[in-house]
Write a structure and sequence with these properties.
The protein has one helix at 5-14; strands at residues 19-29, 38-39, 51-52, 60-71, 74-80, 92-97, 107-110, 121-124, 131-135, 144-149, 152-156, 165-169, 176-180, 189-194, 197-200, 211-214, 221-225, 234-239, 244-247, 258-261, 268-272, 281-286, 289-292, 303-306, 313-317. The protein is mostly beta strands. It has two domains: 6-80, no CATH class; 88-317, Tachylectin-2, Chain A, CATH 2.115.10. It contains one helix and 25 strands. It binds calcium ion (CA) (4 copies). One calcium ion binds at residues 181-183, 185, 187, 189, 202.
C-alpha cells in the first residue's frame, strides 16, 4: 500500500548526517512480453474459461535507476530515484483468529516482520462470524483493523482497535470485503466481491459503488493490491479449486493482465509488498504456514514461515507505520 510510504521516504531523505546515497542504473528486460500469457475474459456469459491469447512482442526497456540510502553502513532505504514517492517499507503478515468457543471475541494477531515468531500486536475486535478487513482508513501510514458484518463495515483507526469506530452499511450479507487505495489519494477504502463482480467505493461511508466491474467467476476469492507499482490498488481473483490467480491493473471489466498459478487447492490467498519495492505480490496461507512470493509469477515461495494456527485467516499490512 504505497502511498503512505511517501512519508517514510521523506523521512529517510531528511535523514541524518551519516546518510550517503549510491545510485545504480540497471537494464531491465521486460519478461512479460516474452511469455505466452493465458488471459481470462471475465465479462462473458456463460461462465468464462481461460483462453490463450497472443502476448505483445518482447522489448527491452531501460528503467529503475535505483538509489540505495545508507546510514552508518546500514541500508536504510531503496528508492527508484526516477519515481518520487516510491515506497520504502514493507507489509507484514497477521492472522484473524476466531476461537471455536466464544467468548473471547476474535482477535487480529500481527507480526512486524515476515518471519516465524510470536505476534507483536493483538487486537480483539469484532464478533464471531465477522469477516476481517485491514487498511489505512485515515491515510496516516498505519494499517488498522475492521470487520464486515452482514452488510455493514466497522472500521477502527486505532492500532489497538479502540473507539470511535467508523460504521456504515455497504453490500449484502455473504459479500466478501476488500480494501485498497482505488483512487491514489493515500486513503484505503472498502469494496466488495460478489460472485465475479467487484463493487468499489472511494469513501468509507454509506453510498453507492464508484466502480462496478466483473472479474473471475463465482467461487473465486477477491484480491486487491498494487500489482504494477503505480500507486493505484486494483483487483484480482484467486481460484481456490486450482490455485490460479488473475490480476488486473485497472479497475474495469476486461482481460486479466497477469495470470499465474500459485498454491494448491484449499490455500487462502494473501497479498502485500513483502520486500518494500512498491509492488504488491502474492502469497498463500496453508494450515499455519505463509508462503510469500516477491514477484507475481509462477514459482516457489520466496519467504516461508509458520505463524498462527490452522483455521486462522491471513492478513497483510503495515501495522507499525512507515519507517519502522
Ligand atoms: Ca491509518
Ligand atoms: Ca483512496
Ligand atoms: Ca497499480
Ligand atoms: Ca514487493
Amino acid at each position: 500500500m504505497p502511498n503512505r510510504k511517501l512519508r517514510a521516504k521523506q523521512k529517510a531523505k531528511q535523514g541524518s548526517p551519516g546518510i550517503r546515497r549510491i545510485v545504480i542504473t540497471t537494464l531491465v528486460l521486460s519478461l512479460i512480453g516474452g511469455i505466452t500469457a493465458i488471459a481470462l475474459l471475465a465479462n462473458s456469459s456463460p461462465l468464462p474459461l481461460p483462453e490463450p491469447v497472443a502476448s505483445p512482442p518482447q522489448s527491452p526497456s531501460l528503467s529503475l535507476s535505483k538509489e540505495y540510502v545508507y546510514a552508518g553502513g546500514k541500508l536504510v532505504a531503496t528508492e527508484d530515484s526516477s519515481t518520487p514517492g516510491a515506497p520504502v517499507t514493507q507489509d507484514t503478515i497477521g492472522v484473524f483468529h476466531q476461537p471455536l468457543v466464544s467468548p473471547p471475541p476474535p482477535s487480529f494477531k500481527m507480526r512486524f516482520s515476515n518471519t516465524a515468531g510470536a505476534e507483536e500486536l493483538v487486537v480483539q475486535f469484532g464478533q464471531p462470524g465477522d469477516k476481517p478487513i485491514v487498511g489505512d482508513w485515515n491515510g496516516d501510514g498505519t494499517d488498522t483493523v475492521g470487520v464486515f458484518r452482514n452488510g455493514a463495515f466497522i472500521l477502527s483507526n486505532s492500532p489497538d482497535g479502540s473507539t470511535p469506530h467508523i460504521v456504515f452499511s455497504f453490500g449484502n450479507p455473504g459479500d466478501q470485503p476488500v480494501a485498497g487505495d482505488w483512487n491514489h489519494d493515500g486513503v484505503d477504502t472498502i469494496g466488495l466481491y460478489r460472485n465475479g463482480t467487484f463493487f468499489l467505493r472511494n469513501m468509507n461511508s454509506a453510498g453507492g459503488a464508484d466502480m462496478t466491474f466483473e472479474l473471475g467467476i463465482a467461487g473465486d476469492v477477491g484480491l486487491a493490491g498494487d500489482w504494477d507499482g503505480d500507486g493505484v490498488h486494483t483487483t484480482g481473483v484467486f481460484r481456490p479449486s486450482t490455485g490460479a490467480l488473475f490480476l488486473k491493473n485497472t479497475n474495469s471489466t476486461g482481460f486479466a493482465d497477469l495470470v499465474l498459478t500459485y498454491g494448491i487447492p484449499g490455500d487462502k490467498p494473501v497479498t502485500g509488498d513483502w520486500n518494500g519495492d512498491g509492488t504488491d505480490t502474492i502469497g498463500v496461507y496453508r494450515d499455519n504456514t505463509f508462503y510469500l512470493r516477491n514477484t507475481n509469477t509462477n514459482g516457489f515461495g520466496d519467504i516461508v514461515f509458520m505463524f498462527g494456527v490452522s483455521g486462522d485467516l491471513p492478513l497483510a499490512g503495515d501495522w507499525n507505520g512507515p519507517n519502522q
